[in-house]
Amino acid sequence: MPSLDPAVAEVRRVVRAALAPHAERAVLVALSGGADSLALTAAAVFEAAKLGIALTAAVVDHRLQDGSDAVAQRAAGQARALGADARVLTVDVDRQHPDGLEAAARDARYAALRSCAHEIGARVVLLGHTLDDQAETVLLGLARGSGAASLQGMAPAREDDDGMLWLRPMLSVRRATTRACCAASDLDVWDDPHNVDPRFVRVRARERVLPVLEDELGPGIAEALARTAEQLREDAEAFEEMIHETIEDIVEHAEAGISVSVAALAANPAALRNRIIRLVVDSEFGAVLSRVQTLEVARLATDWSGQGPIDLPGCTARRAGGRIVFAAR
Fold first, then answer.
1. Are 51 and 20 in contact, with CB atoms under 8 Å apart?
2. What is the rounded CA–CA span in Å between residue 236 and residue 214?
3. Which domains does the chain have, with CATH numbers?
4. 60 and 112 in contact (C-beta within 8 Å)?
5. What are phi and psi of 198, to 5 degrees?
6. Whose CA is closest to 308, among 298, 319, 299, 292?
7. What pLDDT is attached to residue 159?
8. Which among 6, 112, 270, 314 is placed 20 to 30 Å from 104, CA to CA?
9. Closest alpha carbon to 191 in 35, 30, 31, 47
10. Is pLDDT above 70 for 2?
């Protein structure tokens, strides 16, 4: 009996670990036809059969390239040949999206996947991101300079408020491994032209920046960036628990908003203080503060000199006695 190809075995192993807690349920797998999602789909079909999982592959046609409908139908046909049900989801991408075409396509894709998952009764969606994708995400977060949160990369698992679970089982798997997996399984891979289009910042990070870092600093850069993301997520989880425990003691509801104890804020380390401020505004008003805005609010507690209210996204912050009051605008 021939031995199992190591690349196939590696992908199946991580997919098995992700699917095992969801036996006898419906699961959706996102498929583009590229090597990563095709290797994921093939492994998911194999493991789902043993776990009694009803697996459906969803192929999103963004209609951003000529012939995209044919590419989508081809990928769906590959999924059916592997043994999965398959659906093609056609979406409209907002070309005027303020964050660019990549963000617009991502938003449209996730909305379509969520809708499809609800239709088939699935609460789990598998995504094909690899270790290389994670390294690129961390590198781009570093370039933005937006703090530790942006360096945490993509979470292996994320559960939305409605219970939808998004799993990325291949974050420890290299892109080269998914290609080897497809080759060993005789799967014909589609290469998206957008993945080599230098208009996109992620492509430039992948094709230009990471290779230079590997050449100049030595091999293992992608793995190091992925490890950084994992360690920061662990730190963030611990911080999150501390923040929620602290907030219970120092936050009170106020008219048209919420208030926070000045003394308690000032007594906390800056990292915890700033996170509390951001979390309060986000949870109460659904707004994300920049670092400059966060520090201005913190000064109401740590450097008070009679300054007036601060305008923030969706709310204002002002000092009233021993409290900082956040009120809707």
1. yes
2. 28
3. 6-223 (3.40.50.620), 255-328 (3.30.465.60)
4. yes
5. -70, -5
6. 319
7. 94
8. 314
9. 35
10. no
Model confidence pLDDT, tens digit, residues 127-146: 999 999 999 999 988 887 76
Count how many Cα atoms sit within 13 Å of the Cα of residue 307 in the half-sphere of its side chain. Answer: 17
pTM: 0.81
Where in 148-198 does DSSP place strands (E)?
157-159, 165-167
- Per-position DSSP letters for 300-326, written without gaps between them: HHHS-SS---EEETTEEEEEETTEEEE
Residue for token pair 């036996």: 23
Print burial letters for 163-199: b (CB count within 10 Å at least 16), e (below 16). Answer: ebbbbbbbbbbbbebbbbbbbbbebebbeeebeeeee
Q: Are 18 and 166 in contact (CB under 8 A)?
A: no
Q: Residue 177 has which token pair?
A: 């491994």
Confidence of residue 1 (pLDDT cuts 50, 70, 90): low
